[in-house]
Amino acid sequence: MQIITLTTDWGNKDYYIGLIKSQLYRDIDQVNIVDISHNVEKFDTLSAAFVVKNACLNFPKNTIHIIDVNTFESSKSSFLVVRANEQYFICTDNGLPSLVFENIKVEIYDTSFVLSDSNYYTFAVWDNFCKIAKIINQTNDLSSLGVKQNEFAIKKASSLPFIDRDMISCTIIYIDDYGNAYLNMDNEEFAKNISDKNFEITLNNRYKITKISQSYQDVASRGDALLTISVTGKLELALREGNFAKLLGYKVGSTINIAIK
């Protein structure tokens, strides 16, 4: 059975999801459509890249992933098929794929010549991506879809923490639906830089965090702030049974300083 995943910023209010699923079910026999998320922040390629990188790379061989975030269709749009980890990713060359596939071996095909069925350019997934998915399902020969290219036209690099002798300055790179904030630092890198030293995070002159918690319940009371390790391996800030980002006023791009003592 062909697996196809959908990652979008469409939300759940409109007809878009139903329209695309109906087309895929008509075009491809025995297809299993998996909704990764339709609630990525509108036009937010950074958040979309985080979701795709952590949710999609370990699907079975030959899975087709359709990614539609910040996709503006035009007669000159650069639509891509990226083959990575023996899977196929249909997306737009808007910086998102360069973030998802950092340090991953890929094949890239520009599929812009796969023409829309319409003279209007308002819904790339309907006009192009479904057609591309159908072709991939029929053949593994991506050369039939477009021209192979060596690199992405638009490149974005993941932000890195600034590390000094007595301070680590991190950036919030993603906020989940619970309001938990993910930092741009892996647990291994954090442990290496902290070593046997102590650390302290001060939040809004209200909370002080001096340890890594094993779970969300590993603090005294509801509403207490904590630092833990997310399933992605990134440092994560949260409030026990609360919305960290909303209640403390943090957003994607906010800076979190970790003092090394």
Low-confidence stretches: none
**How many beta strands in the DSSP annotation?**
15
Mean pLDDT: 93
Classification by helices and strands: alpha+beta
Radius of gyration, Cα only, in angstroms? Answer: 21 Å
Per-chain topology:
Blueprint: E1 2-8, H1 16-27, E2 31-37, H2 45-55, E3 64-68, E4 79-84, E5 87-92, H3 96-100, E6 107-110, H4 124-138, E7 147-149, E8 162-163, E9 167-175, E10 181-186, H5 187-194, E11 199-203, E12 207-209, E13 225-229, E14 234-239, H6 244-248, E15 255-260
Parallel strand pairs: 1-2, 1-3, 3-5
Antiparallel strand pairs: 4-5, 4-6, 6-7, 8-9, 9-10, 9-15, 10-14, 11-12, 11-15, 13-14
Helix pairs in contact: 1-4
What does this structure look like?
The mean pLDDT is 93. The chain is an alpha+beta fold. It contains 6 helices and 15 strands. Strands 8, 9, 10, 11, 12, 13, 14 and 15 form an 8-stranded antiparallel sheet that branches. It has a 7-stranded mixed sheet with strand order 2-1-3-5-4-6-7, sandwiched between helices. The protein has helices at 16-27, 45-55, 96-100, 124-138, 187-194, 244-248; strands spanning 2-8, 31-37, 64-68, 79-84, 87-92, 107-110, 147-149, 162-163, 167-175, 181-186, 199-203, 207-209, 225-229, 234-239, 255-260. Helices cover 21% and strands 31% of the residues.
Overview in brief:
With 261 residues, this protein is an alpha+beta fold. It has six helices and 15 strands.
List keywords for this structure.
single chain, 261 residues, alpha+beta, 8-stranded antiparallel β-sheet, 7-stranded mixed β-sheet, elongated
